[in-house]
């Protein structure tokens, strides 16, 4: 039987064009980009982890950051090639093809929420490994309890893990990624836990 990751990735491959259309003009998160951009040096290298088509990568580039896309879904990476030109890497988040201590920032906006707690911890360890000392991580996950399969939005299954603020902060601190900004924000469909962290 296919893994949760394989099923979720297959869904993103199949709905990539629709996802691009649905998220193109999504204004939420512009202030998150600005806060993150202010935290990392201008021109520094940043990985957009779980980038999808690359909308946020383009936003980061517009702030003078040398950002690149990284996503497990090749369909998502291909969907944004023309609209959001940037370097693109296909990879899992739990084993990053990035040299240790080589990037100033990691942007993980609504991407690590597809990982089980063990894989989530592995991804955080990888993020800490690739960040330079005092590098920054932006992360958002959905607030809630447990996990579930969701099919309503695209008619195909995506697996989500939910977190409380306390649980999220505990995992970040365990990975030596200390939150320097925290908030909780509500959309029509979910409550989001937002963290800007610094690697220690």
Q: Can you walk me through this structure?
A:
The protein is an alpha/beta fold and about 200 residues long. Helix content is about 35%, strand content about 30%. It is built from 7 helices and 9 strands. Strands 3-2-1-4-5-9-8 form a 7-stranded mixed sheet, with helices on both faces. Strands 6-7 form a two-stranded antiparallel ribbon. Strand 4 (about 105-110), helix 6 (about 115-130) and strand 5 form a beta-alpha-beta unit.
- Would you report the number of β strands? 9
Number of helices: 7
Q: What radius of gyration results from the CA coordinates?
A: 15 Å
Order of helices and strands: HHHEHEHEEHEEEHEE
The portion of residues forming beta strands comes to 25-35%
Mean pLDDT: 96
**Oligomerization status of the protein chains:** single chain
Instruction: Give the strand line-up of the largest sheet.
Output: 3-2-1-4-5-9-8
Enumerate the spans where pLDDT stays under 50 for 5 or more consecutive residues.
none
Largest sheet: 7 strands, mixed
Q: Helix fraction?
A: 25-40%
Helix/strand/pairing category: alpha/beta
User: How does the overall form come out from the CA principal axes?
Assistant: globular
- Terminal Cα span: 40 Å
